[in-house]
Amino acid sequence: MPWLRRGFLCVATAWLAACATASEGNAEPLPVAVADGVYMVRGAAGEIGPDNRGRVGNTGFIVGPLGVLVVDSGVSRAQGAALLAAIARVTDKPLRLLVITHARQEFLFGAAAFRERGVPIQMHARSARLMAARCEGCLRALQRTLGDEAMRGTAVVKPDVIFDESTALATIGRPVRLLYFGHGSGPGDVAVLDETSGTLFAGGLLDNGRIPDVQDSQLAGWSRALQALRGLQVSRIVPGHGAPAGPALIDTVEHYLTELQLRATALLDADVGLSQVADGVQLPAFAAWDQYDTIHRRNASIVFLRLEQERLMKEGANR
């Protein structure tokens, strides 16, 4: 059937395009099909800055018979508006819901553009509390970094719907599940599973080719979340950062987190001082990943300090 072959080629070509390096930050976002009815808009590599206008996080959307569900919204009102325009290039179906997967600045501030359009916004209750507690400060920092023009109209937007547990959505006439496994990569972080295609929007749980940030994490909970993901029917993953990937990405990210903890523990056992930790936790297998020289060094110090505190508390309890 020629139409089926054309459809397959379109998805395959789009997948290859998504795997390529993201385009310049000043270019308008290009929606890329990763499965039938499932699209991502790839973020740029590197830290948030004027060159990429802060567009470092992936966003995406799922098109169903009854409308569109959007996953994450970008770093600014301008990026949110560009995402809306990108969706309109793909479909004229109504926008039913925006799901924000976690309270990180590059994923949530674009919600201002969706609020202007009257699109309901949904977040986990714990992510909503974290956003309320710190994101006004994040917004001021972004305004200093990116400039007033880039951040014009951007605001912290309260969600219309909050939830506490994993839940099924029938909003777009296509089965979608919001998955919450407890405090993992951060409080209230969720993933979005399109059951029709087996596509997982992983949010903060998985990054591809970029060092995961442990700042808000509980590593034991993160490991449990990754184990739960292995039990799902997942055929492809749209990570929070980086190119789409297969299910093997789950093992790759867990390997990084495990090695990070093992190396930090070894330094603690060797009575190494904190000032030596960032240089001491070398993980050559991940040295080519984006943000290895920044986020990884910070991760090493964070994990070392947590392990040290846990050890001191145990020693105090045993006295």
Report what the structure shows.
- The protein has 319 residues and is of the alpha/beta class.
- The chain has 2 domains: 2-246, Metallo-beta-lactamase, Chain A, CATH 3.60.15; 247-319, no CATH class.
- Helices cover 40% and strands 16% of the residues.
- It contains 9 helices and 12 strands.
- It has helices spanning 2-19, 77-90, 105-108, 111-116, 125-146, 219-230, 248-269, 277-280, 292-317; strands spanning 32-35, 38-41, 59-64, 67-71, 95-99, 121-124, 161-163, 167-169, 176-179, 191-194, 199-203, 236-239.
- The strands form 2 sheets. Strands 1-2-3-4-5-6-7 form a 7-stranded mixed sheet. A 5-stranded mixed sheet has the order 8-9-10-11-12, with no helix packed on it.
- A hairpin with a 6-residue loop joins β8 (167-169) and β9.
- α7 crosses α9 (292-317).
- Residues 1-25 have low confidence and may be disordered.
